[in-house]
Amino acid sequence: MTLHAYFDGSGKENDHPIVTVGGYLADDLVCRAIEADWVAATEGKTFHLADFDGEARKLGSASWSERKRAKFLKKLCAVVNRNGVTIISASVDVSEYRQFVSSAVYPKLFGPPYSMVAYLSLQISERMLLKTGKFRERLVYVFEKGEREHEVRQAIADYESRYPKNNSLRSLDFLPKHTTYCSRVTSLPGQCKALYLQH
Fold first, then answer.
1. Which pTM was predicted?
2. Residue 140 CA to its chain's centroid (Å)
């Protein structure tokens, strides 16, 4: 059974007090059901909370009441939060993290806040695979193509240096922001995938 772990990032260290990477882990059948329900709920439009609640409101929610917007968000949450799904999330308080790093003996080992939460998300995913007996499955991490790519690459490189036995089982790719499902990633049957999904 193919496994998928979808991630999305929130917050920028220079603009926000908290940086988060969150997502979910599920098997292929559950992920396909999530995708179908998500597309139906959004009518195939790209959902991003900043657009939904901001001036752009690409889903046409500008005229919606607060109650209707809240109901819609609850519906999207229920699409993901279902049986067979493990929710994964890691956050860091930027000011606390900077204070910690500034007092560290080797501060460069820790990297920016986003690198840390990306690394923690990888660790949580690996832990889930270990606990479910799928640690030796092939795993493709796919993140959003963009400005943080170098940070994610560094987090993956750090992971590989700590766990060299898994190097042949793990790979990394970056896809555009609008990518919404891992079927667009070419892989071998039975291969796990972890996507940084911009819904």
1. 0.74
2. 13
- 36 against 164, higher pLDDT: 36
- E strands, 18-138, are 18-27, 86-93
Tokens of 74: 């609850």
Residue the block writes with tokens 């891992």? 182
Domain boundaries, the chain: 3-46+73-196
- DSSP string of 98-117, one letter each residue: HHHHHTSSSGGGT--HHHHH
Pick the CATH number of 3-46+73-196 from 2.60.40, 3.30.420, 3.10.450, 3.10.310: 3.30.420
Residue of 62, 46, 49 whose CA lies nearest to 11: 49
Q: Which residues contact 110 (CB under 8 A, 6 or more apart)?
A: 97, 100, 101, 104, 116
Contacts of residue 88, defined as CB under 8 A and 6 or more positions apart, other chains included, come to 5, 7, 22, 23, 24, 25, 121, 124, 125, 128
Which pLDDT belongs to residue 198?
Answer: 39
- The alpha carbon torsion through 151, 152, 155, 161 (nearest 10 deg) reads -110
Q: What is the tens place of the pLDDT at every residue in 154-193?
A: 777 877 888 787 667 777 777 766 655 444 444 433 444 4
**DSSP code at position 3:** E
pLDDT of res. 15: 85
